[in-house]
Amino acid sequence: MSRKRATNLASSTGVSGQARDSSGRVVLCRGKARPLWFGHPWVYANAVERVDGEAAPGDIVSLVDHDGRFIGRGIFNPRSQIPVRLLTHKDESIDAAFFVARLREAQALRTRLGLPSSRTTAYRLVNSEGDGLPGLVVDVFADAAVVQITTLGLALRRDAIFDAVEATLSPRTIYEVAGGSSYAELEGFVAQNRVVRGDPGNLVPCLEDGLRFEAEPLAGQKTGMFLDQRQSRIRVGQLAGAGKGLRMLDCYAYAGGFGLQAARAGASEVTAVDSSPRAVARIEAHAAANGVPVRAVEADAFRFLETATPVSYDLVVIDPPKFARARKDIEAATKGYERLNALALTVCAPGALLVTCSCSQNVGAQDFERILAAAAKQAQREVRIVEQGGPGGDHPLPPAFTEGQYLKVLFVYVS
Ligand code: SAH
Predict the structure, then answer these.
(1) In what order do the strands lie in the sheet with 42-43?
(2) What is residue 283's predicted lDDT score, i.e. its pLDDT?
(3) 399 C-alpha to center of ligand 1: Å?
(4) Is 29 a catalytic residue?
(5) What does the pLDDT average to over 365-372?
(6) Ligand 1 centroid to residue 32 C-alpha, Å
(7) Which of 102, 157, 167, 176 is most buried, by CB atoms within 10 Å?
């Protein structure tokens, strides 16, 4: 990229610095290369022995093991706890063609899984490390693409990424969102919600399993919809259909997808709770658009559950935001999940299903099962796990990258 182009980029997007493939070489400490040979894409700061040559924040650098063996090329940022994120195991340039190739590969994987389809037009096209593009998420909502960038190195290469999105999807609109994350500040760039290219507009109509939604990339949360819960929402629809006239409660509902699935499947009443007025407005609009009855309530989920009639629901979903943002939060988060799950169990009628979720990466799958057991003890209810869920195939992960496993969904039978 020429210096002039880089300067323009900097002035239009609040990024200082330029996109360079540098000659810099990051050398790992002895014994620290192993996970990388197995496909783990991150280099933690304590694994770096030294940096040879010139490497500025946001540059592409080469990564070698202690004996100088080439591992790959990746994004460099010495300000980060993860100073190198690998983009490739080949000795290749990270240029416009690279991003096009990566996006086409990501698209081929989704096509193989049947996404998009006539029933589902909302899906994740790029899942960061899972698609060999650490720091990049691209969500597709019918003919709109929403891009979220979380590393300085990719922020410096925004235009090449937008070009690749255009070449792969030809969307009507490309949005860029900050996604409510603090990564930009940590990494040293400015992230904002904006229309990058194409038609402006706040609401983007799309389909999930035949249900109509309108994603809200600019004013909503994350990229505009929580696509990682699609499979669980569909499963809830199936389970609601298997019961007769169920009373359903969808807590932390956001767009209302769990409740809409249950309502369409014939639940006799559906209540969707969210503390965000914007989410409540969306739920009401989505219920009307699909011609199904959902009562949307603006409330704090804890307060709602505390005052709800005990044993009054046959299907309860709790899908809270991340309680543990960092390791130091684990203890408080554990208490929070335990209390929330105990409250949810209290409103479950005998024979109800509770679908309980945690998206805290710092609370592991086994920890979450222990939390459920403790909640059952607190609520004095007997529970059994009947199924487990998680993100769909449009959220792929390398097997060595366990840091990417964050979402846990337990389907629980409540006696
Ligand atoms: N279940 C949703 C995704 C949930 S995201 C879906 O399938 O799309 C978490 C949601 O919790 C957000 O909509 C947020 O507004 C809401 N939220 C955050 N704190 C809350 C609280 N204390 N009480 C109720 N809702 C809350």
Answers:
(1) 42-43, 84-88, 70-76, 60-64, 21-28, 48-52
(2) 98
(3) 29
(4) no
(5) 98
(6) 39
(7) 157
Domain 96-209 fold: Transcription Regulator spoIIAA (3.30.750)
Matching residue, tokens 């499979």: 231
Tokens representing 262 are 């249950």
Cα–Cα distance for residue pair 349/233, rounded to 1 Å: 21
Main-chain dihedrals φ then ψ at residue 28, nearest 5 degrees? -85, 155
* Residues contacting 230, CB < 8 A, separation 6+: 120, 122, 123, 208, 209, 257, 392, 394
CATH topology of domain 3-88: 2.30.130
pLDDT at 1 over 60: no
Ligand 1 atom closest to residue 222's alpha carbon, by position in its atom list = 5
Q: 178 CB under 6 A from ligand 1?
A: no
Here the tokens at position 184 are 């930009």
Q: Which two tokens stand for residue 357?
A: 């979720």
Q: In the chain, where are the structural domains located?
A: 3-88, 96-209, 226-414
In the chain, the amino acid numbered 171 is: P
Average pLDDT over residues 372-387: 98
Q: Which two tokens stand for residue 355?
A: 């679908």
**Residue 23: both structure tokens together:** 């000659």
Q: What percent of the chain has pLDDT over 90?
A: 87
CATH T-level assignment (fold) for domain 226-414: Rossmann fold (3.40.50)
Q: Is residue 58 a contact partner of residue 22, using CB atoms and an 8 Å limit?
A: no
Which residue(s) pair with 393 in the sheet? none
Query: How many whole angstroms from 319 Cα to the centroid of ligand 1?
Result: 7
State both tokens at 296. 């949307």
